[in-house]
Amino acid sequence: MPFDVTILAPHVPFLLKGALLTAEACALALVGSLIIGLLVAALRTSSSPLLSRAAFVYVDLFRNIPFIVQLFFFFYGLPEIGIYVDAFTTGVIALSIAGGAFSSDVIRSGILAIDTGIIEAAEVSGLSKPVIFRKIVMPIALRTSIRPLGSVFINLVLTSSILSTITLNELTGSAKIVASDTFRPFEVYAVLLIAYASLTYLVSLAIGVLHRRLNRDRMPEVA
Amino acid sequence: MIRARGVRKSFGSAIVLDGIDLDVESGEVVSILGSSGSGKSTLIRCMNGLEKLDAGSITIDDFDVSRPKDLAEARKRSATVFQLFNLYPHMTAVQNITLAPIQVLKRSRAEAEAAARTLLDSVGLGARADAYPAQLSGGQRQRVGICRALAMNPRYLLLDEITSALDPEMTAEVLNILAQLAKNGTTMVFVTHEIEFARTISSRIVFLDKGQLVVDLPTEEFFAADGGMARPRISQFLSKMRKD
Ligand SMILES: Nc1ncnc2c1ncn2[C@@H]1O[C@H](COP(=O)(O)OP(=O)(O)OP(=O)(O)O)[C@@H](O)[C@H]1O
Ligand SMILES: [Mg+2]
C-alpha cells in the first residue's frame, strides 16, 4: 500500500474538529495552570507556614501521580461519590491542576530569585502586600520564568492527547477513529505527528515573543 | 521629628545596636558616620521598619514604627534611597517613580506622571524618563532612586550610602542633587562615607561605633580639634577615611 494522504481528504473536517477541541482544551488549561501556578507559588513563598506547607503538598502530590491516573480518578472515580462533570471540563480541570503544579514550581524559583532589596524598596514605600505581589513580584518572576514555563506548556499540549482516554474526541481521539475507519494508520498518525509538532511549535513561538516583550529593557543583552 | 530612644538590635548573639538615642528635627541634615559594621545601615532599617527593634522605640512624627498600625503612616512620612538603587527592573523610570504615588497616595496617573517628569527634569533626566533601569548608568539609576523617594513628598529622607556603588563622576552627579535638596530644607538622615561632603551639607554629625552612638554634635564642633576630633576613635576614623 503506497503512502497516500489524499485518502484522508473526506476525514479532514472531522480531524480539524478534533484539533480545534485540543486547541481549546489546551488554551483553557494553559490559562488555568498559569493562574493556579501563580496562586500556589504565592502561597509557597508566603510567610505563613500553614499555607506554604499546603501548597507544597499540592505540588508534590500532583507531580508524583501519573496524569492518566489523575484523569481516571476525576472522570471515573468522582461519579461514584455523585460528582458528575463532562469529559471536556474534566480534561481542562485535570490538565490545569497538573500543569499548575509544574508551573508553580517554575514560578516559585522565579520569585525566589528576585533581589530582596527590590521588595524592600516596595515595602518601604508603603505598598501593600497584594500590590507588591501583583505589580512587582509577579511580573519580575514571570519574566525570568517564562522560558521554563514554555516547556511546561508544551508538555501540557502533549499530555492533552491523554484526554482521548476519557471519551473526548480531541485530536488524538479523532485520529484513532479515522485510523480504524480507513485502515490507514500510517497516514493518519503521520498527520497527527505533524499536527502536534505544529501546535507545540506555535506555543514555543508565542513564548519567544512573550519572553522578548517581558524582557524588552534588556533586549540587547538577552540572546 | 524622628525620635529614637534606647534602640537595641541583635542578630543572633551579635549586638548591632546597643541603646541608640537620636532626634532628627524637621529641616535638619544629620549625617551618620562610623566604620563598617558599626550599625549604620541597621539603624536606618529600623527607622523604615525593615528590621524589628529588640527594645526601645523609634517614632516618626509620633507614629511608632514598631506598631503595625502606625508603620504605614510612618512610611508615608519618610522615604528611603538605597545603596544599590533597588529600582523595579521591569518598569521605566517614570513607572518606578509613579507606582507608590498612584497606589499609596491615590494620585491620578496623569498627575503622578506629570510630577515624575518634573522631578526627572530637575535631576537632568528628563530625556530618559521612559528608559528602563538596565538602560541607565549607575548615577542615572540613583537619580531615579532619589526621584522615586521624593515623589512621595516625604518629610524625611533616609539615605544609606547612596553613592558608594558609584564611580567618582557619578557620585558627584548624585551629591549635587543632595546639596540642592539640603539647600531647599529637606530633612535628611544621611549615612555616608563621603566625609567632606557630609561636612558641607550636615547640620549635625552622629558617630556610631560598635552599635553605640559615641557623639552627636553640630558639624562645626564635630570637626573641631577640641570637639569630636579630640576623641581618638573619631580622629582615627577620619584620618583613615581621608587616606582611602
Ligand atoms: N540580617 C543580618 N543578619 C546577621 N547579621 C547582620 C544582619 N544585618 C547586619 N548584620 C551585622 O550587623 C553589623 C552591623 O551591620 P550594618 O550593616 O548595620 O553596618 P554598617 O555600619 O552599615 O556597615 P557598612 O559601613 O559596611 O555598611 C555587622 O556586623 C553585620 O554583619
Ligand atoms: Mg551599611
TrEMBL record, chain A:
It holds the Pfam family BPD_transp_1. Residues 19-207 form the ABC transmembrane type-1 domain. CDD domains: TM_PBP2 (cd06261). It comes from the Bacteria. Its main location: membrane. Belongs to the binding-protein-dependent transport system permease family. HisMQ subfamily. This is Amino acid ABC transporter permease.
TrEMBL record, chain B:
GO terms for cellular component: plasma membrane. It comes from the Bacteria. InterPro entries: AAA+_ATPase, ABC_ATPase_HisP-typ, ABC_transporter-like_ATP-bd, ABC_transporter-like_CS, MetN_ABC_transporter-like, P-loop_NTPase. GO terms for molecular function: ABC-type amino acid transporter activity; ATP binding; ATP hydrolysis activity. Residues 2-235 form the ABC transporter domain. Keywords: Amino-acid transport, ATP-binding, Cell membrane, Membrane, Nucleotide-binding, Transport. It is found in: Cell membrane. Gene3D superfamilies: P-loop containing nucleotide triphosphate hydrolases. The keyword Membrane applies. It is a peripheral membrane protein. PROSITE patterns: ABC_TRANSPORTER_1, ABC_TRANSPORTER_2. The keyword Transmembrane does not apply. Its main location: membrane. Belongs to the ABC transporter superfamily. This is ABC transporter. It comes from Phyllobacterium brassicacearum. The lineage of its organism: Bacteria, Pseudomonadati, Pseudomonadota, Alphaproteobacteria, Hyphomicrobiales.
